[in-house]
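Fill-in record for ABC transporter substrate-binding protein.
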Amino acid sequence: MITLNRRKALALMGGTLAASGLAAPAIAMNKKVKVGALRFTSHSGSFVAFERGYFAEAGLDVEFEFFQAAQPMAVAIASGDIDYAVTAISGGLISLADKGAIKVIGGALTEEEGIDGQKYLISSASYDAGITTLKDLDGKKYAVTQAGSSFHYMGSKMAAAEGIDLRFTPLQKVGAIIGAMKSGQVDGWSIVPHIAKPLAKAGAWHIAGNVSDYIPDYQVTTVFTSAKNAADERGQTESFLAGYSKGVDDYAAAMIDKTGGDAGQDEMIDLIHKYVYTDRPREKAAPSIVNGTMRLSKNAALNVASVQDQLSWFQSEGLVGADITLDTLVDDSYVETVGA
């Protein structure tokens, strides 16, 4: 186990509670922790836990730090700048796990049959030029944030199934990709539904397929922390997972199961709007927040079969070491694991 500053963590990247539920956490005595997040509906578990006092009840004084991509969050965890985060598995995250710096401790966003999920997209300029199906993207530019990102993984899995080759084009940030898709500088991309659907309706691009059709039961994002926290701060880590899981339960009840009816959904939209689409008035933000509703794993259960598939893909692409095992990446002692 090692301690890293942010510069060392970047260098190491190389460019690239029980089965029945969470155990009762040890109260962390108002311990201050920093949580990494993206301003996506899919990060609502953390937002709800904070706003409804579940982190505070678990003894945690939570402060958010916001990012624009997955890999910088992995660096921040490894360097100790943040304590916990929810994000996709990336080559950088795996490489840092291999160095003993971080551990995946739970599951978050997952593709579930019957719930609208992530979409594959074709830019409108490309569509108008005759590229109307995913198979037509053969040899075309496909946007990713970085090589070794979840976008890279999703694009590659689709390309393999369709028997095509893609020209992966790293653009670093989601905002830059949206601009490139609108202007026709890239041909294809994949993204969560709250971004995909409203901009497709506005004519920015065309939806060409569902990620779940190519990657069933995909564990899209995971909960992770430093290896030090996982090993030495068990009470604090259990407290974080307990608070987060209560937030997930409330989110699912309001947005998926709709146990509170329209009033419950409206209340949840108001809460999420504090963090997502904050530059829009509530009435314009609400449809996109609803469009982004996807399943978050109950009790942070982790689909280890999906994580293994992702790890194997990164290895097959030469993006991470061939000898890295699932145990190197995952500490499975905190939550229920499925798909093993």
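KEY FINDING: DSSP finds 16 helices and 14 strands in the chain.
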